[in-house]
Design goal:
elongated, 91 residues, 2 domains
């Protein structure tokens, strides 16, 4: 399961210059790749990636939160465990 979140980042000054240089020098193709690598690096630095189970739990919690927001926006209530299993192919 892949969770994607759109995030708008406004940047200028030195961070923007570094971003552009990393692309210009060929280390990355896009700004998105640079930012993704930076976030992963911070995850390693602060130990977020040390516990894969904890990371997976956080991703699942984020997905659940997004699903709940989508249901609320659509004016629907929570879906049953049976519906979840069917939607994601669990037995």
């Amino acid at each position: 399961m892949v969770v994607c979140v759109e995030t708008l980042v406004k940047m200028g000054g030195v961070p923007e210059s570094i971003l552009e240089l990393l692309i210009e020098k060929g280390y990355f193709k896009t700004k998105t790749e640079v930012l993704r690598a930076g976030v992963l690096n911070l995850g390693e630095k602060y130990g977020v990636l040390k516990d894969p189970e904890e990371l997976e739990k956080n991703l699942v919690a984020l997905k659940i939160k997004k699903e709940e927001q989508a249901l609320k926006k659509a004016g629907k209530g929570n879906i049953s465990e049976k519906e979840v299993k069917k939607k994601y192919g669990f037995k």
